[in-house]
Amino acid sequence: MAGGEGFSDFFYAAQDGLTLHARIYGNDNRGQLPVVCLPGLTRNCRDFHDLALQLAGDPENPRRIICFDYRGRGLSAYDPTWQNYNVGVETADIVKGLDELGIDEAAFIGTSRGGLIMHVLGAVRPGLIRAAVLNDVGPVIDPAGLAHIRSYLENAPRPTDFAAAVELQKTIHGAAFPALIEADWQRFVHAIYRQEDGRPVADYDPALINTVLAMDLTQPLPDLWPQFEALSSVPMLVIRGENSRLLSVETLAEMGRRHPRLEAVTVGGQGHAPLLETGELPDRIAGLLSRSSQKGLT
């Protein structure tokens, strides 16, 4: 049952005992697929708040939305071993959470790293993913995009207040996101920072940066085409930011050639990764869900 803010908190133990968190919006609408939301590398469940409220409150097709915090992000506990901040461990964490919630099939929305986890989930749990939304991510990751992420994570100062945090994020991302208005920047900042001693703090374990620093970005990254093709039977929407450095136009075109049920939308004036509550995106996502909404059907 959702609380006064439109969601309830769900805590569970990972296989190694670490306490993990998710938000749950809406109620179980029997016959309708639940929606599982997986955020980006340093992001958390708050990224999906506005979208989740819309989907859970749809007057015709209300549905249950589960938004996960990976270990070391949001309200999930920090891992004392930073090497565990990897897609394999995080995939196992999501599987454990879904098992505890009794979810064996769902629609999935994955932003960036969340989309990579979806590729792995499709391989380790065939039949789990019944519809897929990939937000600015695909089976090939552009190393230049990762280098950009590493640069701003490594060098970003801690802002003194939320107004300074907004200006900092505009400095880092403004060129890639000219379409955002002030309200968008405010939502963005309050999603990625928590308040601590009156100051905004990035809401993830600082040790997470070690995983990015350990990557050799001079070498091509392994692709996930076999895992992507394993999802070719499910309806899929791929969202790409016009100014994305992570998902290339060429990769998106190849995804379309390999997936007969793929829809693609390019979001003008946004980069990596588009804000899912903006513009036509909520309607596009709801449309995909409505076409693949019933349990046991694709």
How does this model look, in words?
The chain is α/β, with parallel strands linked by helices and 298 residues long. The chain has a domain at 7-145 and 222-290: Rossmann fold, CATH 3.40.50.1820. It contains ten helices and ten strands. The protein has helices at residues 49-56, 87-101, 113-124, 143-155, 162-173, 182-192, 209-213, 225-229, 249-258, 281-290; strands at residues 7-13, 19-25, 35-38, 65-69, 106-111, 129-135, 193-196, 199-202, 236-241, 262-267. The strands form two sheets. An eight-stranded mixed sheet has the order 1-2-4-3-5-6-9-10, sandwiched between helices. Strands 7-8 form a two-stranded antiparallel ribbon. A hairpin with a 5-residue loop joins strand 1 and strand 2 (19-25). The radius of gyration is 18 Å and the shape is globular. The mean pLDDT is 95.
Can you summarize this structure?
This protein has helices at residues 49-56, 87-101, 113-124, 143-155, 162-173, 182-192, 209-213, 225-229, 249-258, 281-290; strands at 7-13, 19-25, 35-38, 65-69, 106-111, 129-135, 193-196, 199-202, 236-241, 262-267.
Features:
single chain, Rossmann fold, eight-stranded mixed beta sheet, globular
CATH superfamily of the domain at 7-145 and 222-290: Alpha/Beta hydrolase fold, catalytic domain
Using the CA coordinates, give the radius of gyration: 18 Å
Shape: globular
Helix content: 25-40%
What secondary-structure arrangement, pairings included, does this model have?
Layout lengths: L6 E7 L5 E7 L9 E4 L10 H8 L8 E5 L17 H15 L4 E6 L1 H12 L4 E7 L7 H13 L6 H12 L8 H11 E4 L2 E4 L6 H5 L11 H5 L6 E6 L7 H10 L3 E6 L13 H10 L8
Parallel strand pairs: 3-4, 3-5, 5-6, 6-9, 9-10
Antiparallel strand pairs: 1-2, 2-4, 7-8
